[in-house]
């Protein structure tokens, strides 16, 4: 579904991504882990067209989208839940979900909002509450629900566990698994490597802009180097 080939990204003099190669097959959860500043968010931002790569290819269903604008990439079926959630704080939960569907022209939007609310019952209880007054976990659910309104083939999640209590993290990760089981492919960026490796099929480890390990998630969980460097064990 997605193939990143020799991707490089610069911010002025900073070489943030160095020849990144990543492959995501249809139906998988793939995770990208690594320390602060490793380039995880930059990778997702390059994929969704929010940053322009300096070189390399991003093949999404076989088409190179590296130079496409963000709105076209969303319309092709890739949707991005950014770091920090970025919900529209002054709009209600319902309005945020409606805005998630802004590119759609069909008549099923109201029905799909109900389907999202079935997945996130907490949001149904807070439907007319302003998004800025939701808890961190609820905002994460809303950001994910909003991204799902486009019915993406590939969902990009940037640190969904950030700042959340362990029980809420478990809840969010269970929902990610369920979204994946229902047919959405997931690329998950996480600093919580343990939680991410537990639900992912495949993993890549980024260090200062380069991929230093890759493999199936279970074997990375059992690898001594990974355990001491990234899992704090
Ligand atoms: P974190 O978990 O802290 O968000 P990350 O792995 O997602 O880290 P990035 O945010 O992708 O890392 O940052 C990679 C590198 O690029 C860092 O050195 C960062 O300082 C730099 N960087 C990111 N965004 C910009 C920007 N807009 N301008 C300049 N440098 C940037």
UniProtKB/TrEMBL annotation:
<dbReference type="InterPro" id="IPR003593">
    <property type="entry name" value="AAA+_ATPase"/>
</dbReference>
<dbReference type="InterPro" id="IPR003439">
    <property type="entry name" value="ABC_transporter-like_ATP-bd"/>
</dbReference>
<protein>
    <submittedName>
        <fullName>Amino acid/amide ABC transporter ATP-binding protein 2, HAAT family</fullName>
    </submittedName>
</protein>
<dbReference type="Pfam" id="PF00005">
    <property type="entry name" value="ABC_tran"/>
</dbReference>
<dbReference type="GO" id="GO:0015658">
    <property type="term" value="F:branched-chain amino acid transmembrane transporter activity"/>
</dbReference>
<dbReference type="InterPro" id="IPR052156">
    <property type="entry name" value="BCAA_Transport_ATP-bd_LivF"/>
</dbReference>
<dbReference type="GO" id="GO:0005524">
    <property type="term" value="F:ATP binding"/>
</dbReference>
<dbReference type="InterPro" id="IPR017871">
    <property type="entry name" value="ABC_transporter-like_CS"/>
</dbReference>
<keyword id="KW-0067">ATP-binding</keyword>
<dbReference type="InterPro" id="IPR030660">
    <property type="entry name" value="ABC_branched_ATPase_LivF/BraG"/>
</dbReference>
<dbReference type="InterPro" id="IPR027417">
    <property type="entry name" value="P-loop_NTPase"/>
</dbReference>
<keyword id="KW-0547">Nucleotide-binding</keyword>
<dbReference type="GO" id="GO:0015807">
    <property type="term" value="P:L-amino acid transport"/>
</dbReference>
<keyword id="KW-0029">Amino-acid transport</keyword>
<keyword id="KW-0813">Transport</keyword>
<feature type="domain" description="ABC transporter">
    <location>
        <begin position="2"/>
        <end position="233"/>
    </location>
</feature>
<comment type="similarity">
    <text>Belongs to the ABC transporter superfamily.</text>
</comment>
<dbReference type="GO" id="GO:0016887">
    <property type="term" value="F:ATP hydrolysis activity"/>
</dbReference>
């Amino acid at each position: 579904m997605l193939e990143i080939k020799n991707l490089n990204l610069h911010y002025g003099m900073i070489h943030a991504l160095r020849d990144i190669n990543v492959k995501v097959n249809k139906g998988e959860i793939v995770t990208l882990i690594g320390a602060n500043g490793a380039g995880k968010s930059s990778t997702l931002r390059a994929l969704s067209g929010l940053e322009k790569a300096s070189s390399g290819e991003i093949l999404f269903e076989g088409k190179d989208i590296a130079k496409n604008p963000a709105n076209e990439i969303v319309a092709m079926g890739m949707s991005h839940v950014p770091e920090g959630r970025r919900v529209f704080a002054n709009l209600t939960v319902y309005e945020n979900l409606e805005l998630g569907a802004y590119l759609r022209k069909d008549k099923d939007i109201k029905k799909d909002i109900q389907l999202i609310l079935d997945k996130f019952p907490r949001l149904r209880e807070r439907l007319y509450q302003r998004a800025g007054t939701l808890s961190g976990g609820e905002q994460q659910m809303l950001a994910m629900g909003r991204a799902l309104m486009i019915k993406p083939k590939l969902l990009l999640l940037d640190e969904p566990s950030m700042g959340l209590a362990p029980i809420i993290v478990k809840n969010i990760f269970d929902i990610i698994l369920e979204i994946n089981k229902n047919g959405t492919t997931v690329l998950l960026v996480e600093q919580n490597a343990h939680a991410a490796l537990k639900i992912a099929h495949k993993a890549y480890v980024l260090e200062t802009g380069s991929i230093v390990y890759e493999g199936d998630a279970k074997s990375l969980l059992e690898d001594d180097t990974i355990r001491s460097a990234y899992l704090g064990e």
